[in-house]
Design brief:
Elements (H helix, E strand, L loop, with lengths): L13 E5 L3 H10 L5 E5 L5 H8 L4 E3 L11 E6 L4 H13 L3 E4 L12 E5 L2 E5 L6 H14 L3 H10 L2 H4 L6 H22 L4 H13 L7 E6 L10 H9 L2 E4 L5 H4 L7 E4 L11 H13 L3 E6 L9 H11 L2 E5 L4 H8 L14 E4 L1 E2 L2 E2 L4 H4 L6 E4 L5 H10 L7 E6 L7 E6 L3 H8 L5 E5 L5 H6 L11
Parallel strand pairs: 1-2, 1-4, 2-3, 4-5, 8-11, 8-12, 9-10, 9-11, 13-16
Antiparallel strand pairs: 6-7, 14-15, 16-19, 17-18, 17-19
The structure holds S-adenosyl-L-homocysteine.
Length: 467
């Protein structure tokens, strides 16, 4: 970030604009939204500027800028649309102590003016450091459509009520009050009674909140999907947006954590597969202790919370502590992995069942019904299967599986660094060890990448393919 965004207090302060053409007009239209004292120096001012001066909206000096004109100015705009004249006036303004912007000259400007979405007192400023004005305009358009015009009125009236809301304890309770006002009560009151209905509505709402029963804490077990933030469900996004506390696992990507509410307490309960782990009992206590304080806890688990996620243990801890809980399903790694290779988990005439198995359980390498899996056409999604690969390979071959059975390992499914390793049961090891995968990987037993996908996928290495 080369430009640090701030909102500057300009009420009653001087802003000087040099220039009277289109560039100056564009800046003046923005500046006139403020209560700054605006002076324009222009030998040939546009008629609008003359008219604004006549109406007392600004002071016009109908001549070129000269030394002394920028004294005591907070901001200065060189908007002459003439590089030599801009450089001359900018040098004067510099000497006289103003912060200088030269229109369409990023390199010589001390500050830049962002694109603005105005719902005063809510103001959104969009800047691209000059890199992509088209993008800034597109974002502005999108926000203009998203932010209802009543927002400004709600915020303005809300501001006058802030002192009264201090009757509510600081933190979650006040936040709940304002969320209720901005998203429910406020818009409803505006619709039925207009602006004058807002103040009575605020009083009634405050009375409700002051006398409300103490907030009950609750826990949402939320599936965060395989890593791509676009694979979050809308419910998961909402939960992240509302949470007071987010307790997340090691596999949750930073892009997803970014979506949590700014003020949310973020707690890492990362359990390294084989390394130092936070004991399950400690995680349970963390969840229930926070919920018992009346907070909304989001327990964020990778993929789907119900798949190899130790969900039951945490639910039982909630039940034992008398804490309300619910589950928000997510997209499990197997779904993302199979999508990435263009196959389906089940297929008419091939397999009418699919197994989700783990390479590991509490006792070590996990045992399964290998004889059943070894039959032709079987498909299994193997979680936590990297270290157990040789064990799984050995068991399946021992039970008569065809060594030519396709096996595909998908590392970092759905993420930008996704890799696909297509091999066969006979060659699974040492191919997997040699590939040196370090991210989470899902093994699809019985499935090869669809040929068309294999040809298209640049991350896919043909020499590793045995299809
Ligand atoms: N609840 C999760 C699974 C947790 S177990 C889910 O539904 O996906 C952790 C295992 O999930 C990892 O060892 C790996 O096998 C698999 N996994 C999770 N995210 C993955 C991803 N993005 N790509 C490939 N495998 C993944």
């Amino acid at each position: 970030m080369k430009h640090f965004p701030i909102f500057m207090a300009v009420d009653g302060r001087r802003i000087v604009v040099s220039g009277g053409g289109d560039a100056a007009l564009a800046k003046l239209r923005l500046l006139m939204k403020t209560k700054a004292r605006i002076t324009v120096c222009a030998a040939t001012p546009a008629p609008e500027i003359t008219e604004w001066a006549a109406r007392g909206k600004l002071t016009l000096a109908p001549r070129a800028l000269k030394p002394g004109d920028a004294l005591c100015a907070t901001l200065f705009y060189a908007a002459n649309e003439d590089a030599a004249e801009d450089a001359r006036v900018a040098a004067i303004a510099h000497r006289e102590g103003a912060l200088v912007n030269i229109v369409d000259n990023l390199a010589d400007s001390q500050f830049i003016t962002p694109a603005i979405v105005d719902r005063d007192p809510v103001v959104v400023a969009i800047g691209t450091e000059g890199a992509a004005p088209v993008l800034a305009r597109a974002i502005k358009k999108e926000l203009e459509e998203k932010l209802p015009p009543v927002l400004g009125t709600l915020a303005r009236v809300g501001k006058t009520f802030r002192a009264k809301v201090e009757a509510l304890p600081f933190g979650a309770k006040r936040r709940a009050f304002w969320a209720d006002y901005y998203f429910n009560t406020g818009p409803r009151a505006m619709k039925t009674g207009g602006e004058t209905a807002l103040n009575p509505a605020l009083h009634a709402l405050l009375a409700d909140h002051l006398h409300a029963a103490p907030k009950q804490g609750r826990v949402e077990f939320v599936g965060a999907g395989p890593g791509d933030p676009e694979l979050l469900t809308l419910k998961a996004r909402r939960a992240l947006h509302d949470a007071d506390v987010v307790i997340y696992d090691r596999l949750i990507t930073p892009e997803i954590l970014e979506l949590a509410r700014r003020e949310a307490v973020m707690l890492d309960a990362g359990k390294e597969g084989f390394g130092k782990a936070m004991a399950q009992g400690d995680i349970n206590a963390l969840i229930t202790d926070h919920a018992a304080k009346g907070t909304h806890v989001v327990r964020l688990k990778s993929g789907d919370a119900t798949v190899f996620g130790r969900l039951d243990e945490e639910i039982e801890a909630c039940a034992a502590a008398g804490v309300a809980w619910s589950v928000v399903p997510g997209i499990t790694a197997a779904s993302a992995a199979v999508a990435s290779i263009g196959q389906s988990l089940t297929k008419r005439g091939r397999n009418g069942a699919v197994r989700f198995i783990t390479g590991h359980d509490m006792k070590g390498f996990a045992d399964h019904d290998w004889a059943a899996l070894a039959c032709p056409g079987e498909v299994a999604a193997i979680y936590m299967g990297k270290r157990a690969a040789r064990f799984i390979q050995g068991r399946l071959l021992m039970h008569g599986a065809d060594p030519a059975t396709p096996v595909t390992v998908i590392e970092n499914a759905s993420r930008p660094d996704q890799r696909v390793l297509a091999t066969t049961l006979g060659e699974l090891e040492p191919t997997l060890t040699n590939a040196g995968l370090i991210g989470p990987a899902l093994t699809l037993f019985g499935l090869a990448p669809r040929a068309a996908i294999a040809r298209l996928d640049t991350a896919f290495h043909p020499q590793e393919a045995a299809i």
